[in-house]
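Possible race condition, two jobs.
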Amino acid sequence: MATMIPENVETFTTEGEGQFYKFLEVAAKPDSRHITWYTPNIEGKEPDFILFSQNVGLIIFEVKDWMLDQIWEANPQYFRLQVGYDIESRKSPFQQARDYQYNLVDKIKADGQLISRDAAHHGNVKIPFHHGVVFPNINKLEWINNGFERVTGTDKIFFWDDLHPSSDICSDTSGKCFQDALEKRYFKQLGVQELSIKENL
């Protein structure tokens, strides 16, 4: 079982967050190469998930339980959604995840333990950072057919198709499909070290 922090969560903020937690718990293998944090507190900000992958680095995920027919309009900064009888404007989940990424980078830089001291990369964080979005109730084909990939693309999204128990990722007990999916979405980083980051988040 992958390392999950905290373990044995009884109540999730949304059903989709619970689904993604269970997905990572099962799919993020080999266990020793992955750590997942659920709603960690970063200077008062709480991203839905942070995943550490030894091959890829740190990925901040924002999970949205939206249905496709709720989305009236989308652009890189904001989505307009039908919520009950109202149309509401919400910050793009991609922008949310990116903002959390910047917050986490600032925290790690302030801590100083994961900052490079070598001349070529002095002052930079030693570990790569990425951000992504999870749509547990939207499948990839629907997203594309409705034209939303022209706004956000699909390269940084995990869809319903990925999280479904019968998906290739969930069916693969070795974790290779999951690792391939991460590397396809967030590009493989050669030479990423296994860092002692449990105590730093």
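Job #2 (started ~2 s after job #1):
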Amino acid sequence: NSCYIPPESLSDYSEKQLIGKLAANLVMSEDFIFIGPGYTCLEVAKCLKDKNFLSVMTMNISAAIELSDIPEFRLTTVPGDFTRRNGTYYVTGPLLLDYFHNVHFDKIFLTIDGFSLKRGFSVLDETIAKIFQPLLKQADEVIICATASKINKNAMAYLGPANLATTFVTDTTPP
């Protein structure tokens, strides 16, 4: 599946805000979800506030802060090294490599740094790729959120093939 936002819809919101809103619409009350790092995943979190009784695990500290005042949510942050990239704060590092060993999610939301039909999905950081790869096998749905700037681009660390995502939410026509 893919979700496409027509360009004429972009007048009121930025691309990342619209992607976040569309992706958040895929979440049902009482889901157990994982929110990955990045600004687009932060926008997903901002749009979850009308859901009921979510269980959210995240490495995105900015998203955790955004959701921290909702008493009906069970919010868990993961252990690791605190870092910042592109205006958001998140946790990464070797502690996370085995952290998700026995955790299963209804849905995971991830952003990527590159996507091409030939190479599939990729990210800038090898450690992030190693953290994400087990997560991808432990979710009913993998929802990748990315702007058009990530399409037909490769990043350093391979994440998975083009059919990795159950849903690809973007602001362009997917290839």
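The first helix runs from residue 15 to 24.
Logs attached separately.
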